[in-house]
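Practice problem 4.
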């Protein structure tokens, strides 16, 4: 394709997209004029736009393309399944081979007591379905008052109606309705912005005590579950103090509150293990929710992994003719499950979790070197889940005004140099495919170094520094 034809095609696609596609998280202050960058091709750690520009993918699509782009064997597995049987219902005692095989594999990979899988279509629906099942569980136990869910400020659990209420990022719900009578939010675990003079251990005590006080105020008999990401994702890649998750689970156990781990982002290798809850944080959740890396984004799929104890209750009929009357048309979709099975095979065969454990600390170390920039207040995260927090004053940790669009500036400058990272307000998130090497890390840090230098210059020129 010659340059003129490519340009014409790119312009036509850009116009169609702008005229007809309502994008998730659209910034309409710029979209009406600028539209979107169209990504049309991908391979390994790279993506390419409609104009032919090639970029290192620094966000794994959206936390999810864990094994990298363009894996022909996943596409082949999906094609073979679609040709053999693309879809059939899993309602009313019907099933399919990929869903059955995947359920068994997930039970093998998850903590030992999580042996049962409920399928949905993504992370939001996994969290939504989980809360419905949790309420049903307590209803079946004769405890219908146990409805309240405890979440956290700046948590991200999705954008379906109930999941958006679980989400604690205030700007996500501006002018949207939420189900606030069902959810109470605790403070997020933000070590960078913990109270001045408080040690990390003291801060952990403070957060656990807040949970205990909240349980006492609401009443354990009214609380069904606590939900938490092992590392917060879109809310700022916030890493909790040491032993936080173990201690929060202990509060749950003492008060008959279920502990739900939202591993939509952390699952399937991002922290170096298939699941982080037990392997990294020494917790044994009653439920683990996953999506994204489950299929590496090759097909939509979410899963709720449920403990034996919960399943024993959920699988008991209410009475003659009673059924577990919840689910989705695409629960256990055979093509999505085939993609997930091949994805898991690749992760195991190529030692991708081992790669994350080897290269992840190097990524942390090299990104930390960017702290010399005037605007970089904090570099945090774990392994292949990292964040730079941009501040106007490193001493006071004061933020730039929203109109400075500091995260967007850094992301723009990086993209000009061939790297896509994710801006979230004043933050920049790096969550790459799990196949990055040390050489890739060096190149990425080189680009970010230059992007931050250019951003500092433009902020000064515009009077923000």
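Answer key:
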């Amino acid at each position: 394709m010659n340059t003129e034809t490519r340009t014409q095609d790119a312009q036509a696609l850009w116009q169609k997209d702008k005229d007809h596609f309502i994008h998730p998280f659209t910034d309409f202050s710029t979209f009406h004029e600028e539209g979107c960058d169209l990504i049309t091709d991908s391979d390994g750690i790279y993506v390419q736009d409609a104009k032919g520009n090639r970029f290192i993918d620094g966000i794994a699509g959206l936390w999810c393309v864990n094994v990298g782009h363009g894996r022909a064997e996943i596409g082949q597995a999906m094609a073979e399944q679609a040709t053999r049987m693309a879809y059939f219902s899993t309602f009313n005692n019907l099933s399919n081979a990929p869903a059955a095989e995947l359920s068994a594999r997930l039970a093998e990979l998850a903590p030992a007591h999580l042996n049962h899988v409920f399928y949905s279509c993504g992370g939001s629906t996994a969290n939504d379905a989980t809360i419905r099942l949790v309420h049903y569980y307590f209803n079946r136990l004769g405890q219908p008052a146990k409805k309240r869910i405890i979440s956290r400020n700046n948590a991200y659990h999705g954008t379906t109606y109930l999941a958006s209420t679980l989400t604690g990022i205030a700007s996500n719900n501006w002018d949207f309705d939420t189900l606030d009578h069902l959810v109470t939010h605790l403070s997020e675990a933000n070590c960078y912005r913990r109270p001045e003079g408080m040690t990390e251990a003291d801060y952990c005590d403070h957060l656990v005590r807040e949970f205990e006080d909240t349980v006492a105020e609401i009443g354990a008999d009214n609380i069904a579950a606590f939900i938490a990401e092992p590392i917060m994702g879109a809310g700022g890649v916030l890493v909790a103090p040491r032993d936080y998750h173990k201690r929060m689970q202990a509060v749950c156990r003492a008060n008959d509150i279920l502990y739900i781990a939202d591993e939509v982002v952390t699952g399937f290798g991002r922290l170096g293990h298939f699941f982080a809850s037990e392997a990294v944080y020494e917790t044994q959740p009653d439920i683990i929710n996953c999506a994204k890396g489950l299929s590496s984004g090759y097909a939509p799929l979410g899963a709720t992994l449920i403990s034996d104890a919960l399943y024993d209750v959920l699988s008991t009929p209410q009475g003659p003719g009673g059924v577990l009357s919840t689910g989705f048309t695409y629960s256990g979709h055979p093509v999505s499950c085939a993609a997930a099975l091949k994805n898991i095979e690749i992760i195991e065969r190529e030692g991708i979790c081992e790669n994350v454990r080897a290269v992840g600390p190097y990524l942390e170390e090299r990104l930390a070197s960017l702290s010399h920039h005037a605007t970089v207040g904090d570099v945090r995260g774990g392994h292949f889940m990292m964040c730079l927090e941009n501040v106007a004053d490193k001493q006071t940790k004061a933020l730039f005004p929203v109109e400075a669009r500091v995260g967007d500036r850094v992301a723009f400058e990086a993209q000009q140099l061939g790297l896509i990272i994710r801006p979230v307000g004043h933050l920049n998130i790096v969550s790459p495919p799990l196949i990055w090497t040390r050489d890739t890390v060096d190149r990425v840090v080189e680009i970010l170094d230059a992007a931050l230098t250019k951003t500092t210059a433009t902020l000064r020129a515009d009077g923000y520094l």
